[in-house]
Request: fold
Amino acid sequence: MTQQQQPATTGPGTTIPAPSVRQLTFQWAGGPAIPVLSVVIALLLGAVFVLLSGNDPVAAYAALVQGAFGTPYDLTETLVAAIPLVLTGLAVAIAFRTGLFNIGAQGQLLVGALAAGWAGAQFASWPGIVLMPTVIVFGVAGGAFYGGIVGFLKAVRGVNEVITTIMLNYTIVFVMHWLLQAGPMSAPNALGTPASTPIGAGARLPVIIPNELVLFSRLHAGIILAALAVVVFWFVLWRTPLGYRLRAVGLGAHAAAQAGIDPARHMVLVMAIAGGFAGLGGMIEVSGIFGRVYDGFSSSYGFDAIAVALLGKNSPLGIVFAALLFGAFVHGGAYMQSHAGISSNLVAIIQAFVLFVIAAEALVRSLTRRRGARKPVEAIA
Amino acid sequence: MKRFLAFSVLAATIVASCATTGTPGASGTPAASGSATGAHPRIGLVTDVGGLNDKSFNSLADKGRKDAESQLIVTTSVTESKQQADYVPNLTKYAQDKYDLVIGVGFLMQNAIWKVAKQFPNVKFAIIDGAPQDDGGKTENLPNVANLFFKEQEAGYVVGVIAATMAKNKVGAATHNTVCSMGGIPIPPVDRYIAGYQDAVKTVSPTTKILNGYSNDFVDQQKGLEVGKSHIAQGCDILFQVAGGSGLGYIQAAKAAGVYAIGVDADQSSVAPGTVITSALKKVDVAVFQTIRSIRLDTFKAGDNSFNAANDGVGFGTLDKVVPADAKAAATQALADIKSGKITPKDTVQVKP
Amino acid sequence: MTLEMLIGASVFAATLRLAAPIALAALGGVTTERSGVTNIALEGSMLVGCFFGVVAADRAHNVWIGLAIAILAGVLLAGLHAYAAIALRADQIVSGMALNILALGLTTYLDYQMYGTTGTPADLPVLPDVQLGFLKGVPYVGDAIGSQNLMVWTMGVLVVLLQLSLFRTVAGLRLRAVGEHPRAAETVGIDVRRIRYAAVLASGALAALGGAYLSLGVAHSFTDGMTGGRGFIGLAAMIFGRWTPVGALAASLIFGYGNALSTSLQGASIGDVKVPVQLLGTLPYILTILAVAGFVGRSRPPAADGLPYETEGHA
Reply:
């Protein structure tokens, strides 16, 4: 494939060619879309563990795939599980593109969820046409605020974002405990469940698959929001001057500064945008699944997002596919346990092998073609 | 084009699996579907997040399931929920497969149980520590759901009687007339234990000093240990843990200092013999077992099923030999008084941190 | 709120206990990143050290064997990462994350298989505390350091050792060279790959020591996922400490202090207002952010940190 156009040495007057969506997909596909061999290796390694635990690997994998895609209901559930991962994956990826390591998608998602949950309950009587956009705005703004703090601290004080994101992740967990456990946001008739007041009907994302098609499906309109977010991601990064500048910063702050771009200001901006994506993810979970904010509802969306972003090579469709893979593991893994008796920890082990092998294989091959996805933990001097 | 090939093979595999009919021929686990009225009732257990080995409700419920599988003629299956969004699909899959009973563990599942039970009125459900709760947060009893409630404050009360008696009489290492407790986080299932404990101490020995704290965690033992050390430094001799895995650290602090501890939920005397003087039992395993048995015997009772002192759903666990006879007698009497209604332990915490 | 709650001897003692595992992980981080390899699987190495240390101590009825096996487990896990990062030049973040997931899944699985019904044994051999009898009467100091665990002291010694060797020995110089300019280092005959392997394996050992301290020194048992993110906090401490052992220790102490406060301040009030217990939990994190933003600011990692290196002969 000749889609690789190495950027000209960055400096004043050079341009970074903007790849099309097609090119991006091929780029990504050339990496971890995986000669079937490497996935097979991972599955074989996992099979060894399954065998050692006294189970039948073939049955186990059959259950995994069947659980994830076997019935239309399962398909919709895999999608439901993937949706928040798409958004947090975008949150991590857009930061990576600028050379920042956003471990904070977890916290940003929670802040967005809290903001959206609060607004949805506070204005519960408003009609959907007004309330839904309001709740979306609150979710995005909440996450953007939380991400912006990280960018701000880095820009103004040079604080490495790895530190602030990890710390802020934990902080919001405890703040949430306080808010929801008989605290200011706790529902008045919660009967002891640490959860917020339920949001109004106008703020709930409707299920978009009628019961006649898939009985009791939970697939909600959040999938449309997620798809839009993916488009926005692509558009911002590759079709706007801002996106150009962000990617330039990611390829080298020195060079970017030479080209007249101020890295500091863009750090705040990109972390806010990243936080906005994650916050939207939080809002979607509240509006589409729970209807209120439950304490601790998100255990690992933000964390899995890092793997999703990297597996997807920080490209829009790559992230979608990686999120689907993870969603399949979540939903299919549960079926593996309930119907093939495979411990959920074995599912995690298999998932780890898949990740590990994908990481090793993909990047050996693409080492010479690496572009845009900056290595983390690197301060932009 | 090699990549396209790879892609299409992967896609084909996925599509092909969608066409897979029937269930995997798994070894050793119930996989047959569609036998709603088979001789072997099928029971599904969906745990809360926190894993099967959480030293708390999940592990007790799992024990009940395993007991049922070995003692009753049922086949069981368990699914661990990894996050809260999994509750509904985990419950639904069992219901879709026409299981005879689907049990959910934990109050966070109240809305999920309500949703799925309404969708599958012919499947029986049970929920531990809760009742079906609609989207607006209102409780709604359903004809196919058994709400298994526990009166933790009663268990807390009887162990509080033991603690208070020992503190009052300065038994063994309990020389400072101070008792304390540590919760994971201040949520009702935790606080009810502590409330009963404190109520008993105030009743039996009003001069005894009471301390309370939280580790803000149900897993981290070091946090529990630190709270324990802090309480011991303030003179506490009897430490009541209500914090799952984190509470084990609280017990360790007691062990290191040579004082006493009280376990929770399950009998924790084996955790630190000589240190753990008793445990506040919440017989989740018994509740699960009995509910499964009610399916077998066709005596399933929907709505509120209370497990308390009156039906041995709560109690106090193995007493260490250091516990004097009068403490044991007082606790036994207290249990009887609760059964008869003479004592109603408080369920709100009086002494906060 | 009393002064005792803020800076009492018991708070100091708690700070040391809470900081030790984080500092050990951070030391591991310093070692590996100074050589140019990012190892976020420190959490995983810690966790396997935690678990296998307990298993070995239980089976062999000997805590030193337990400690040795813990280190071995941590080294093995780190070895996988080293192979992926150095030989295969894989993405170091994904590799690290994969190994963390592996460690959690494996230890949880084995814990359930081996100790699921009974829990880890109550008579587990444990890492002893070092009782400094001569300090018994001494005010403050006696309570603060008079009976800390052996591992806490070990951590202190390791900090000094690592700081000295990193910055005062030839070996340390080589390590740092490999992390800053691997190409130049190779030119003068330094074996980049070997040093990186050694560094990553050492980081696994250090993290495992922290894990063994948690299970064999503090908790005297194992519960699933008991490291609770300390490996990641260690990474933050490493960055906060500017990739130096002493800095990492300082950062860990600040974090440990915040943690200690979240216990000692329970029940304290500022004026009339009682601080909610849940918000106390945020103390270590807020404190760390403030400390970094206020006092440390920018910190620069080794220049070649996280970048796969191709030795001569490759394309």
Remarks:
- Chain B touches chain A through 59 residues (CB under 8 Å).
- Residues 1-37 of chain B have pLDDT under 50 and may be disordered.
